[in-house]
Design brief:
With about 375 residues, the protein is α/β, with parallel strands linked by helices. The chain folds into two domains: about 120 residues, Rossmann fold (3-Layer(aba) Sandwich), CATH 3.40.50.720; about 200 residues, Dihydrodipicolinate Reductase, domain 2 (2-Layer Sandwich), CATH 3.30.360.10. The protein is built from twelve helices and 14 strands. The chain has an eight-stranded mixed beta sheet with strand order 13-12-11-7-10-9-8-14. Strands 3-2-1-4-5-6 form a six-stranded parallel beta sheet, with helices on both faces. The termini are far apart.
């Protein structure tokens, strides 16, 4: 190729969205922001009128009332699953069997058993299921993960992960919220999962969890707060708190390494300016290394992850976040509940086989509810 020639442009990823509720707008806007790299070509929703209204807002011609109709028509490279959590696993499996990679809003599935079925179908079909964990993809987290892999900051020692949010009673008037059988859990599953996914992405495999959970105020079947102590394979220890009871909302991550402290505080998305870096005495050289890669004028967002997916698909590489990665994060949530309700430490890998927390995040053991209330969850 001569210096005057440019490489052939990567093909546009043709995306479809299933479910046109609130989070679907974030997906559609992120797709639009990617220009020729990704394009929204179809929409499906069981509410046909809502699907048409959504499609018109984003310039989409094709609308369907079922996912099956969408898959039957073809012409889609990636399907974004933006429906309530209890539908995620079945829709992801349907997409894979139709030959279409699925990008699923968190949680990927309600249980580890469902997650393992997704992995089985993925292996059978060769078609991937991906999970939306967009905070992994902001420039600062990508830079931090790279520095950790290269050992620049020294050993990870201590970490703090807090999702301190506030939701009113009215928030739970939506039928699928706050129920074990539909949402899978409370803030551990539906809110804090984004932050502790970043924690796990930075620190690597966790070894053991000791946790508590409680329903303090909200009219839910699930917890409205949980707290965990975590030990990692690399020896690091961390605290993880997930709350929907905190009037001053904050999402906070802090990592203490041998040679530096790295921390961020935001609410629903971070910018480069939200991060603080404190080198250990005598290691001021690290401040320049951090600053060189962490600056960003944009918020961490769906767009960051979608751009990474489009680039991976164009290169013929497996995109993040894989089923295996998403399972590790979901297993952490299951271990938090199992430890809280069984009142024992839970080691990684021990929720397996016929363990009650394989098929339910409640395990049928919720201490504040009669068994008949949680039997289905």
């Amino acid at each position: 190729m001569s210096s005057n020639e440019s490489p052939e442009a990567a093909p546009t990823v043709r995306s479809a969205i299933i479910g046109t509720g609130g989070i679907a707008h974030a997906h559609a806007q992120a797709i639009a922001a990617l220009g020729d790299r990704m394009r929204l070509v179809a929409v499906s929703d069981i509410d046909a009128a809502r699907a048409r209204e959504f499609a018109a807002a984003y310039g989409v011609d094709r609308t369907y009332s079922t996912a099956e109709e969408l898959f039957a028509q073809g012409g889609v490279d990636l399907v974004h699953i933006c429906t309530p959590p209890q539908t995620h696993a079945a829709l992801a499996i349907s997409a894979m069997r139709s030959g279409v990679p699925a990008l699923v809003e968190k949680p990927t599935a309600l249980t580890l058993a469902e997650m393992d079925e997704i992995a089985r179908v993925e292996a059978e079909t060769g078609v991937p299921t991906l999970t939306v964990f967009q905070h992994r993809f902001g420039p600062a987290v990508r830079h931090l993960r790279r520095l950790v892999r290269e050992g620049v900051l020294g050993r990870p020692l201590v970490a703090t992960c807090e999702t301190l949010w506030y939701r009113t009673d009215d928030y739970f008037a939506v039928p699928w919220r706050g129920r074990w059988d539909v949402e899978g859990g409370g803030p551990t599953m539906g809110h804090g999962i984004h932050q502790f996914d970043v924690l796990l992405a930075v620190l690597g495999p966790w070894a053991e969890v000791t946790a508590i959970a409680a329903r303090q105020l909200r009219p839910t079947d699930t917890e409205d707060v949980s707290a965990a102590l975590v030990r990692f394979d690399n020896g690091a220890v961390a605290t993880v708190v997930n709350s929907l009871l905190s009037p001053r909302e904050s999402s906070r991550l802090r990592f203490d390494f041998e040679h530096a402290t790295v921390e961020v505080e935001h609410v629903y998305g971070y910018e480069g300016s939200d991060w603080d870096f404190t080198p250990a005495p005598g290691r001021n050289d690290l401040a320049e290394i951090w600053a060189a890669g962490a600056a960003s004028s944009g918020r961490s967002s769906h767009r960051d992850q979608f751009a990474a997916i489009a680039a991976a698909l164009a290169a013929g590489e497996p995109p993040e976040v894989s089923t295996a990665d998403a399972r590790r994060t979901l297993e952490f949530a299951a271990a938090t509940y199992a430890s809280a309700f069984l009142r024992v430490p839970v080691a990684a890998g021990t929720i397996a086989g016929d363990h009650p927390f394989m098929t339910s995040m409640s395990g049928g053991r919720v201490p504040w509810a009669p068994l008949k209330e949680v039997a289905a969850g």
